[in-house]
């Protein structure tokens, strides 16, 4: 009886190892950064490039326009006038 228990235990253990190692093959999924807060201050002089991205609200993310700056991404309020002026001259990317 102990041989049967040992065999079943080894079988289950090897199945767990196979499943966990095959999950690692796919690799981690890369999520885009999420804006949880936006600025209302006119940061247009800091914006570089000619593209922007829209972010829809989905907790914890908020509605935002995302610009690139020398220091990283800038999350701006889409309802502010300077953001609307700037996006009208730029190209939207996905």
TrEMBL record:
Show which residues constitute the signal peptide: 1-22
Q: Which residues form the Chemokine interleukin-8-like domain?
A: 31-90
Record-given protein name: C-C motif chemokine 18-like
The record's Pfam families line, in alphabetical order, gives:
IL8 (PF00048)
Q: Which UniProt keywords apply?
A: Cytokine, Signal
Please give the biological process terms from Gene Ontology that the record holds.
Answer: immune response
Would you tell me the Gene Ontology cellular component terms?
A: extracellular space
Any GO molecular function: chemokine activity
Which Gene3D superfamilies does the record cross-reference, listed alphabetically? 2.40.50.40
């Amino acid at each position: 009886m102990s041989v049967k228990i040992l065999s079943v235990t080894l079988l289950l253990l090897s199945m767990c190892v196979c499943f966990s190692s095959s999950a690692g093959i796919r690799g981690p999924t890369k999520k885009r950064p999420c804006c949880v807060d936006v600025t209302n201050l006119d940061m247009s002089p800091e914006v570089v490039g000619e593209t922007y991205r829209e972010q829809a609200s989905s907790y914890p993310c908020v509605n935002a326009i995302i610009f690139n700056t020398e220091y990283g991404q800038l999350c701006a309020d889409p309802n502010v006038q300077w953001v609307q002026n700037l996006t009208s001259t730029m190209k939207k990317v996905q």
